[in-house]
């Protein structure tokens, strides 16, 4: 058997019903739309969410909260994540992306203090927690906030 010989079982696929193509087709004349009314006319029908004049559900339900349009997307990384890097290395956003620690669109990177580090690194991030900064400097490294 070859890829170009693979085909569905006989009768598994059926062609679409062609509407309005004469009486003999079984769906001619009114094309299975009925005789009169809004849905029988071309361009007829109601907009999505219309409930026949009843108050629509999106207006009946209460609204809560708001979306902050000034929200910043800050990605967090922990000290335990820095164990991927070698001693004395310089870590910035490009190095973190290459290591797979940060992905996608973001407005900044914050270093948090979960985990331990026992070798010096130079890290360049937007924000650093106090605990993380102490751990990096205690290991002989340095932190640069940009």
Folded structure, characterized:
This protein has 146 residues and is α/β, with parallel strands linked by helices. The protein has a domain at 74-145: Ribosomal Protein L15, Chain: K, domain 2. The chain has helices at residues 57-60, 93-98, 130-138; strands spanning 74-78, 90-91, 108-112, 122-125, 127-128, 142-145. The strands form two sheets. The chain has a three-stranded parallel beta sheet with strand order 1-3-5. A three-stranded parallel beta sheet has the order 2-4-6. The protein is elongated.
**Percentage of residues in helical conformation:** 10-25%
Query: What average pLDDT do the residues reach?
Result: 94
Q: End-to-end distance, in Å?
A: 61 Å
Beta content comes to 15-25%
Task: Note poorly predicted spans.
Answer: none
Annotated CATH architecture of the domain at 74-145 = Ribosomal Protein L15, Chain: K, domain 2
Cα shape = elongated
Query: What is the highest CATH level, the class of the domain at 74-145?
Result: Alpha Beta
Cα-atom Rg, whole angstroms?
32 Å
Question: Per CATH, what is the topology of the domain at 74-145?
Answer: Ribosomal Protein L15, Chain: K, domain 2
């Amino acid at each position: 058997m070859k890829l170009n010989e693979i085909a569905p079982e006989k009768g598994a696929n059926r062609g679409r019903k062609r509407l309005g193509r004469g009486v003999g087709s079984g769906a001619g004349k009114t094309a299975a739309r009925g005789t009169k009314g809004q849905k029988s006319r071309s361009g007829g029908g109601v907009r999505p969410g219309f409930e026949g004049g009843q108050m629509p559900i999106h207006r009946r339900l209460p609204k809560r909260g708001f979306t902050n349009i000034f929200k910043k997307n800050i990605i967090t990384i922990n000290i335990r994540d820095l164990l991927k890097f070698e001693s004395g290395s310089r870590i910035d956003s490009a190095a973190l992306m290459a290591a797979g620690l940060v992905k996608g669109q973001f407005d900044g990177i914050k270093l948090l203090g979960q985990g331990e580090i026992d070798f010096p690194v130079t890290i360049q991030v937007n924000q650093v927690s106090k605990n993380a900064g102490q751990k990096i400097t205690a290991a002989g490294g340095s932190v640069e906030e940009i």
